[in-house]
Amino acid sequence: MAQNMRTLVASGYAAGHYATTYARTMSTPEPFEQVLCDELLSRLHSKASILDLGCGVGLPYDAYFSKKGGVVTGIDLSEKHIVHARKNVAGATFLVGDFFSKEIKGTFDAIVSFYALFHIPRTEHTKLFAHMHSLLKKNGLILITLGVDSMKLSVNKDFAGAPMAWSSYAAEKNKKLVQAAGFEILIAAEDYRTERHLWLLAKKK
Ligand SMILES: C[S@@+](CC[C@H](N)C(=O)[O-])C[C@H]1O[C@@H](n2cnc3c(N)ncnc32)[C@H](O)[C@@H]1O
């Protein structure tokens, strides 16, 4: 199922028109998101290195972190999105690849990931949190969104014009998995604006 889901997600973003339907064009996150991005930034030194997993077109988050002095590296499996990201955020580095790509070199002060981690099977989430832990410097931080409902696999046949898939554990289990991977949760907030998402700000122990 893991490979099937990856193929479906990759081909969905390649064939669909996510970038023009959903991706945002502003360089400032929405107020709820900005509070959490600012919480992250307030705990980092200026010029902190920030890795964005599933960065999409780089807007608004990578543009915002870059503007605030962050040295941003974004990675996304969609080449199409990375083409936009490189135009949208000139000061950042963008790579085409999977969350686990070997192209991600070195360690980071922070890792962010918004609305992306639920695109791999939930059975891989433990491995992914461990991977994030290994990519962080001492006391490194993560700011990520996860799902709030348990869904082994959810497929939408028409997400921005193409099939798309999601997979998630429920919020409480997600928090436990992040803690078990060696993180201390600093802030957990559930976002009910349009869709439901769990936002976690956590620190590497
Ligand atoms: C809903 S979009 C969110 C993009 C961006 N983070 C944002 O919030 O605007 C999800 C992104 O995750 C990327 N993605 C999905 N699975 C991925 C994977 N296994 N590795 C890297 N990127 C992935 C997709 O290509 C897509 O750009």
CATH class: Alpha Beta
- Please tell me what the overall shape is: globular
Which ligands accompany this protein?
S-adenosylmethionine
Distance between the termini: 32 Å
CATH topology: Rossmann fold
Q: In angstroms, what is the radius of gyration?
A: 16 Å
Low-confidence stretches: none
**What structural class results from the helix and strand content?**
alpha/beta
The CATH homologous superfamily: Vaccinia Virus protein VP39
**What is the strand tally?**
9
- The side-by-side strand order for the widest beta sheet comes to 3-2-1-4-5-9-8
Strand content: 25-35%
| Largest sheet entry | 7 strands, mixed
Order of helices and strands: HHHEHEHEEHEEEHEE
Please give the oligomerization state of what you see: single chain
- Summed over residues and divided by their number, the pLDDT gives a mean of 96
Q: Count up the helices.
A: 7
Helix content: 25-40%
Which second-level CATH architecture applies? Answer: 3-Layer(aba) Sandwich
